Amino acid sequence: MDAVELAGSGHPGMPMGCAELGAYLFGEFLRFDPAYPKWPHRDRLILSVGHGSLWLYSCLHLAGFSLTLDDLKNFRQIDSKTPSHPDLTRTEGVEATTGVDGQGVGYAVGQALGLKHLRIDSKVVVVAGDGDLMEGVAMESSSLAGHLCLNNLILIFDSNSTTLDGYVNESFSENLSLRFQSQGWDVLSIDGHNLDQIRAALAPLRTHQEKPTLVIAQTRIGRGAPNAQGTPAAHGRPLGKEEVALAKKELGLPDVSFHVDQEIYHFFKKRSSAGISPSVFSVPSHLESVLQNIPISSPIAGRWVSHKVLQVLADHLPQLVGGSADLSSSDGTYLEKYGPIQAGRFKGRNIKYGVREFGMACIAAGMAQTGFVIPFIGTFLGFVDYMRSAIRMTSLMRLKVIYQLTHDSIFIGPDGPTHQPIEQLASLRTIPGLLVLRPADANEVKMSWLAALLYEGPTAIILSRQPLQELPAKSYEEGVRRGAYIVRQETTKEVTYLLIATGSEVHLALEVAEELGPSARVVSMPSWELFEKQSTAYKQALLQGKIKISIEAGVDQGWHKYIGVGGIAISLTWFGESASASDLAKRFGFTKESIVHKIRTTSCE
Fold first, then answer.
1. Could you give the CA distance from residue 373 to residue 145 in angstroms, rounded to a whole number?
2. Is residue 471 within 8 Å of residue 444, measured between CB atoms?
3. Can you point out the beta strands (E) in 325-396?
4. DSSP string covering 531-598, please?
């Protein structure tokens, strides 16, 4: 209450309504050690209902983690350890960055699955609210958890019957108990304010749990505030000084700001488990040589190059675990030697996520949060919008998750505009912290995987369905690491035509350059993000040319940064068509003849 009042904003209701749950979880149930917050055998607690962050911050402070009372007083202030929603990059003890409803449930499923795979016998507890369980991603994730029988997962549902905009019964009338039971969960129901009932429900799960378990905890939001409790008034704003004073009187608390009984500190000093810090995986130094020596015949589709690369990487990186949204036979993500993960058999390294792209992306993020798994997941680039919110959150958390996104352009052909990505590549490039790579041949695919493994954050590798010819090989240092490099050098003193392209369009740019003559330079630009990290001198030397042209089978957003206002962007302005790749190339101007004509007519104007 005091922290929200001091900040002038925030959510007091959930922390007050779940106080008894927090007391039992941190006081008795959870295994943790504040001195070693990343102890591998700790239990994990994820607050999916992230707007109730002060519940978690208060518990972490009392339990001895590195949050002080001053940190609580700095709630929602710039650069504080107590931002409005929990952030794992800022605060020790926070297991996931949450607040976007539903995704925390996915993270919890991912962490529980990751721990099963790692054979770490710990519990994952996720606290979720009505908003979380209304979101479809929570249901995608809980469905897979039930299918895999994750008996190390406990979901505590803070059932307080309110939402920000009113009451739950105004928009929701499902029987969640039946829903979760149908998904293969055990379901318990308790009074969330009764410590005896809380203990009776949760304590047996410490030693005996057969299925993922939903604990429906009936609570009153803002419990103790006589005029606000049980109403939306306790949801998203301060209670006000008078109501806080009345609540403290009602709860038997002294009228002192940020009061903590010293007995609580004494109790938690005796409470910690013995922990050790985890080791960190690293990328083998010889990995580039290993990748370069993978024999691959040309021409070959980018997705199948990546498939071959993955088989080799899996042998060298035991932490690599893959999966796909029911597309592994098409997107090439299956690790052939390592078998599937199934209920009761978690040793495999392939996850069949089913047609659950959003849930898949959240679960992968949860697996990465364990610190011991590098997850990669696959789907078609045209479907990546299902996952966009999860990718954004993964970027915010700086997690190493690799997205293998195939069928990268209109050149997938007859599948038509529903499946042909037009704006997706540009959209991914707008996500801060996401490394995006669109390789043009087998060597660039190999080096894209090296870039992804070296990058401290998430990566999207965009791969073709259509075969690609081989380009002159470049080392990682001279090629993909730079984000852009020359694949056709002009033979004149000055560059008249600079053609920049990505993916399959690099080969088209080479054909155009041959037609334009010796003063044409061709640059392959597999990654804007890596290119932006290069020196100004390198960028200026590379992007020389009187007439600058970009060639990419997508929208042109962002390209004028490199080709200038007067540059020529060979791009798409509308959705594709259902037709052969060759017919689509003609229709949308992605032929040598069409591009040469446009360059010559535009440059003469």
1. 18
2. yes
3. 350-352, 374-380
4. HHTS-HHHHHHHT--SEEEEE-SS--TTTHHHH-TT-EEE--SS---SS-HHHHHHHTT-SHHHHHHH
* 427 backbone dihedrals φ, ψ, rounded to 5°: -65, -40
Judged by phi (left if over 0) then psi (alpha if -120 to 50, else beta), residue 8 lies in left
The answer to whether the pTM exceeds 0.85 is yes
Residue 530 sits in a domain whose CATH number is: 3.40.50.920
Q: Please choose, from the candidates 188, 590, 268, the residue with its C-alpha nearest in 3D space to the C-alpha of residue 420.
A: 590
Quote the Cα angle for 407-585-579, to 5°: 65
The answer as to whether 392 is a domain residue is yes
DSSP 8-class letter at 29: I
What is the enclosing helix (H) or strand (E) of 311?
helix 302-316
Which residue is associated with the tokens 């922990």?
Answer: 275
Please tell me the predicted confidence (pLDDT) of residue 590. 98
The residues that are catalytic are 357
- Chosen domain end from 269, 297, 330: 269
For residue 28, give the DSSP letter: I
CA dihedral 196, 255, 47, 123 (to 10 degrees): -40
What are the tens digits of pLDDT across the range 409-432? Answer: 999 999 999 999 999 999 999 999
